[in-house]
Design brief:
single chain, 357 residues, alpha/beta, Rossmann fold, eight-stranded mixed beta sheet, three-stranded antiparallel beta sheet, 11 strands, globular
Length: 357
Amino acid sequence: MLKQSIVFIVFIFLGLGGSELRAAELPAQNESVSIKTQEWPFQPGPRSVKVYIYYPGNKLANVNAETGLMLNLHNWGGTNTSGAGNPAVLTKELNVIAISVDYLQSGSWKNQAAMGAPYDFGYLQAIDALRALSFVYHGLQEKNIPFNSQRIYSSGGSGGGNVTLMCNKLAPHTFTCVIDICGMPRLSDDIAFHLPGGSSLNARYSQDKNDKNYLAPGAQEIRFVGNPEHLKLMKDRNNAAKIIIIHGTGDTTCPYPDAKQMFQNMKAAQLDVEAKFVTPADIDNVVFKTTGHSLGDRTQMMIQYGGDYMIPGRPQFRLRKTPTDFELKQDVIYPTSDGRYVISYADGNPTVRFESK
């Protein structure tokens, strides 16, 4: 009997304590778990990320056939829900499981920068978020818990807005609606190399080909969520997500002109996108408090501008009609000037790799 107890304790430790957490082991109530994800070249070896799961009414038992899934992604330098939506409101108003992720380089950027690595800028960070989404998606399926797989969303503020748009790019068949709130539209030269006179953001990349932090052309191109060629490929793949961009006209941290260009490129590619560019006339000190980067109450922005597409019963409510990338298990490929990026879903979980010319 003692031997059996020891084996049981070891099983629990291995199953719930580290990166080998299996998809079927969803927690019964709001809780954080650790999941295995893709290796980071700047720190080789096994890697895991913390995932925070928020259920309607705080319990897995409250999930029903109409419950959707929503990534709720934090800002650059944050963790959990910082700079994102309030999960208590999102789970109640939208009937979703809200999923927040401490993706690659979460936490203080000052501490991260001390490691010497440049900021990932939505690349592996999106893979981390998608693997967290896949964890919950497959976990519900394995437990035979009904949920609405046609209702898959993502939203986030600042860095989380950038990762949200990158998730929609790397998983173009998966999302029903995504909301970018004051996210970084592109890894511009200004931000990448911290050029004078521009954004205060410094991603710490190098233009020196011999530097370990060298930013190759393709690495910069894949991180541009407004990349015209890549947007056309998303359209060709029948990306049907409603894309909502909320951005302040006075934002100099994630510059407004870049957001405007991204929106125009998405429109030109005929993606289903709409934008709310916040002007001084919009300041109500309730939802919008500034036209600058912080904007205001991001939770209410998600509800106010995305609710019509995400809340059942509303006239514009929509359901995604195509299988997810987790189900299709196909490669998603984006060519760049120096090669191509391949996002593989062969086993239902995404990995990304670069193949040079």
